[in-house]
Amino acid sequence: MSWDFLVPVCVGDLVKTGGINQYVVQDVVPPKHLPSYLSKFKAALRSQGSLCILEHFDTGYSVLQHCNSAELAVKEDTLELLVQVVSGLASSLPALLLSTSVSGGKKGKAGGEGLLQWDSEREKVLQALVQLLQLDIRSLWNLSLVEEEFISCVTCCCYKLLENPTISHVKSKPTRDCIIHLLGVLIKKYNHLLGASVKVIQLLQHFEQLSSVFAQAVAVWSTEYGVRAIIGEVIREIGQKSSEELAREGSGVKAFASFISELGSLVPELMIPNISVLIAHLEGESNTMRVAVCEVLGEMLVRVLCGDGLDESGKADRDRFFDTLQEHLHDTHSHVRARVLQVYTRIVNSKALPLCRYSEVMELTVGRLMDKSINVVKSAIQLLAAFIAHNPYSCKLSSADLKKPLEKETTKLREMKEKLEENAPVAVIKASELWAAMEPELLITDEKEEEDDRATAVKIAQYLRSDEDTSELSQNLPPTPQKEGEKEGEDGELKKQEMLVQYLRDTETFALQVERAISVINSMLYWKTTSVVQEAVQFCVTVCEFSVANSVSGVRKMLPLVWSTDAAIKDAVVQAYRRLYLNPQGDTIRMKAQTLVDSLSELMVDASLGTIQCLEEIVQEFFGSSSNLQSTVVQVLWERFTGKRETSGLQRRAAVLLLGMAARAEREVVLSNLDTLCSVALGEKVTEDFLLARDAVITISSITDHQSKGAPFRLPQDHQLFTCLTQAVAEGKHRQSALFSFMEQAVRLIYFLAESPDQLCSRLLQRSAQGSQESNEQVNCVCLAQLLALCGCVAFWQVSHLERSVSAELRRRRGETEEREEKEKGPSMANESAMEEELGLIGASAEDTEAELIRKICETELLAEENLLCAFLPLLVRVCSSPGRYSHPQLTTAACLALSQYMMISPSVCEENIRLMFTVLERSAFPVVRANAIIALGDLTVRFPNILEPWTQNLYARLSDEVPSVRQTAVTVLTQLVLKDVLKVKGQVSEVAVLLIDPEPHITSLALNFFNELASKDNAIYNLLPDIISRLSDPERGMTSEDFNTIMKQLFSYITKERQTESLVEKLCQRFRTAKTERQWCDLAMSLSLLSMCERGFKRLQECWECYSDKLTEPGVYQPLLSITAKLRRGAKPQFKAQVDEFEKRLTAVHTRGLENVESPEMDEENQKQGGSTEKTVMQTPQPARGRPRTKRDAVMADSETPKVTTPIARTSRRARLRN
Fold it and tell me: Considering the entire predicted model, what is its pTM?
C-alpha cells in the first residue's frame, strides 16, 4: 500500500485523522508495553531491514509521546534503532526515490527526537541526518519543492544545539563540525541562505561564545560549499547596525567584533568585497568594533594585498587600508591604539609593509612611546623591535657609519648630473614658440602705424614659418644608433645611482629613528610596571644584536636590575645577558670561549664599580652552572692576563677581574695560580700599571669569600704575596692616582689573608715613613699624601679586622670550648646549662663581654702612645686645620680622608675632631675634599649616631653646594641614611625636594628616587609636607612660583589615601593663619589645589572657611581654590554638585566684593536665632578688621608649633566675634 506523507507542522499532527491515503499513527503504545514493542521492532529490523519502519513507526512515535515517563533504557534503544533505520534508508533510498516510492521525511523527525534528548548520541544522529539530506529527496513533495516546515524542523534542532554553552569547547568539536556541515547542506541544497544569515546575527546578539563557532561555520559554508553570498549577507547586517544599536546590545558587540576578526583571519580574500560596509564602524563609538575592523584590514594586508604582483586596484586598496590603520594609531581609545600597533607588528613580521612606508610608520611608533597607556607603550616597543629585526636596510644600523657612504654617493650623483648637463644639446627655441611670445607685443601698437606694422608682422611670420618647417624637417630625421645607445646607458647609470642614494638616505633616517627610540626606551628600564621593563629589556637585546649605535648603553643600564626584588625583572635581565654574552657562536669550543671573553671584556671596559658588581652576579652564575665552556674560558682568561696572546692593558685588566668573578664560584681558579698573579701583576713591573695590580689584588681577595665554619684561611707573613705587596706600596713613590686605590686594596688584602696583619702593617708603615724623605717639595707633598693615606687605610682596616675577623674568631673558639665542656659535663650539669641557654644567659653575656673587649681595645690600645698609629694623628689634624699652609690637592684630600678613618676608631677621637671635619666640609676649596668628607661623615653617622645628630643640618646644607658632584654625593649619602632610619626625617628634607628642579638630570633622578623610596614608608611624606611647604615658600629662600609648583606636583602625587587628603586640607588651611606674605598665601592655595580632593576633604575645606576667607581677594588664592571646585564637579552626584556650586558662588562673591560685604552662613543662622535683636546689633559699630593687632609669627613653624590636632576648630563668624 502507498501513502501520501505530509510533513506535520507539530508532532500532534501525526495522530489526527487525515484524508484518504494519508498516513497517521494508528496506535499509541502505553509506556508499560513499550519494551515488548521495541523487541518486535528490533527483530523486524534484523529481518526486513530499514523498511520495517513502515510497520513500526507507531512504536517510535509512542516513545516520543511518553518521553518523560519512559525508562532511560527504552529511550536509548529507540534512538539507536532509529539511527540505524535512517542510515539504512540513506543507502537504499536513491533507487526508491527514482521510482517515486514512499517514505523519507518522517525519519528526519524521528532522528530529531534523539537529537534533542541524548547528548552522547548527538554525533551519530547528526551524521545520519547529513547522510540523508545529501540525497535528492525533492520528489517526496509535489512540484519537487521541499517544504519549508521540513527545513525548519532540522535547522531548529541545529540552532538549539548551538545554544549549548559548551558547544565551543574542544570536546564538542565533532558535534560542532556535524552541525556546521548539516547547515551547509541545507544552505546549498535547500535555500536556507537567508534564514541562516538572520539566525547567525540573532544568536550572536545573545550568545557571545558562538563568535568563533559561526566564524568557522561561515568560512566552511563559503569555501567547501561554495556559498560565498553568506559572507556578504552577514557582513551587511553587521555593517548596517548603528552606534546606538551597538550601544544597546552590550555583549552582542563583543560577539560581532570577535566574529568579524576571526572570519577575517580564516577567509581574508572573501572579506575584501565586503570591507567597505565595515569601514563605517571605524567612525563609530564602539572601540571593540574599531579594533575588529583594524584586525581584518591587517589580515588582508598580510595575506592578500602583499607582494609585487598586485594590480593597480590591489595597490590602491592596499594604500587605502594602510592610511586607515595609520589614522587609528592616534585613536581616542588606548585599546584601539594598542591593537593597531600589534597589527603593524604582525605586518612587519610578515614582511608585508611597503618600503616607502617604513619611515612614516616608524616615526609614529616612536611617538607612541610617550603614550599614557601602558599597553600602548608595550605594543610600541614590540613593534620597534620587529622593525629592527626585519628591517630591509642593513644588519648593522649606525647613523655615524652611514654618514660617509651617503656623502660619497651623493657627491658622485651630483657629478653625474653635472656631466649629463654639459653633454646635453643646446635647447633650440621653436619658431611657433617665438611667434607666441612676440604676438602680444606686436598687437599692442599705435593706431597711426597699425597698417605698416601689420604688413611687417606678416613678413616676419612668413619668414619664421618657413624657418620652422626646416627645423621640423631636421628633427624628424632618424637619430644615430651609436649616440642613442650611449644616452640610454648614461640614463641607466644615473637611475641606479639615484636609487642607491635614496636607499642610503632611507637607511640613515631609519637608523636615526632607532637611535631616538633607544634613548626613550632606556629610560623605561626603571619604570614601576614590570611588563614594560620586560619589554624594554627585550628591546635592548634586539638592538644590541643588530649593532645599533649606542645600544650597549641600554645593556649596561639594565645591569643593576639583577638586584631587583621583582623576580620576573631579574630573570629577564639574566636571560638577556645569557643570550647576548654567555651563549657565544663558534665552530669549536675554543672559538666560543674567545667570543665569550671578548664580549664580556668589551662590556667591562670603562665600566664603573657598580657595573662590575652587577656583572659579577651574572658571571658567577655562569661559572656556578655545569657548562662545558668553563674550563676553556678560564684558560683563555689566563692567557690574556699573562700576555701569551697580544692584548691591550684594558683587556688584561678585564681578564683578571673576570678570573676573580670565576673564583667566587670556584676558589681553586685563583688559589692554584697565586704565584702567577704575584709574578705578573705584582712583580718587578708593578709600577708600570698600578691599575692592573689593583685589579689583581681584588681578584686574590675573592678567595676569602669561601670561609668555612672551621679555622679561617690565612697565609704566613713571609708569603711571596705579602712580600710583593709591601714592596710595591713602600717603594711606589709615584704621582699616579691609581697608587692610592692600589694601596687601599693591598692593605685590605693583608688584613683578610695574612697571619697577624697588624704586625705586617706596622712594619709597612715604618718602611714607608723612612722612605718618604726627598728634597723636592712637590714630591714631598705627594709622598706625604701617600703616607697619610696609608695610615688611614691601616687604621680603618685594623678596626674592621678587630670587629669582624677577631670577633668571629672569638665566637668560634667559644663555641668549640662550649662543645668540649658540654661533653665533659654530667647529665645534671647539662640540664642546668640547657636551661640557662634557653633563657639566653650564656650566649648574651659572652657576646657582650667580647664586644666590650673589642671596644676597649679600640678606645685605649689602638691610639696609645706606644702604637705607631698614634704618631700620625697630630700630623693629620695639623694638615686639615691649616689649608693655607698645606694647599696641595692630593695632600689635603688624603689627610681629610685619613682623619675620618681615624675618627672611626673610637667615640673620643670622633668627638675631638668632629668640628674640624665639618669645617673642612664647609670651607674646603676642593670639591673632591667636600665630597669625600660627606661620605666619611655618613659612615660616622652610622657608627656614632648620637655624636653626629646635632650636626645633621650641616650635612643637609651640602645639598645646595655650587658644584654638581658634591650635591650628587650629598643626596646619595643622605638617601642611604634616611632610608635606613639612621637619620630621623625632619623638615630639612625640603633641601632634597629642591633638587627635584636641579639643572643636572642625574641629580634630579636621585632626588626623585629618594622620594619614591620614602613614599613606601607609612605616612612619611604626608607628615613632612606641611613643613616642606612652609620652608619652600619662605620669602628668604626666593624660590619662584613655577619651581614651587613643579616640586609640589611631584610630592602631592604620593598622597593617595582619603584620610591623608582630609587631614592635609585642615593642616594647610591652618597655615593660612601664620603665613604673613601674599606669596605664602598663594603657595598654600596652590598646594590645596594639587590634592586629589574627595567629598570628605571638601567638607573639611568648608569647615576651615575662616582660615582663608580674608585672603580670597588675592587672585593667586582665589584661582587655585576655584580650580578645586571645577575638579569636584566632574562626575559628582547632583546633591554634592549643588554644594560645590554654592561654595563656588561664595568664593566668587568674597573675591569680587570682599569678605566684609558678604553675609556668611553663620551670620544668617545667628540672625534667625536672635530674631528681633537685629536692630540692636546693627546700631553697634564694630571696629574694622584690619585694625586688630596681629601677633607677628614667622611662616616657618617649628615642629612643636605644627598643628597636630586634625579636628576642626569651632569658630564663629567674624561679625559675631566683633559683636560679642
Answer: 0.68
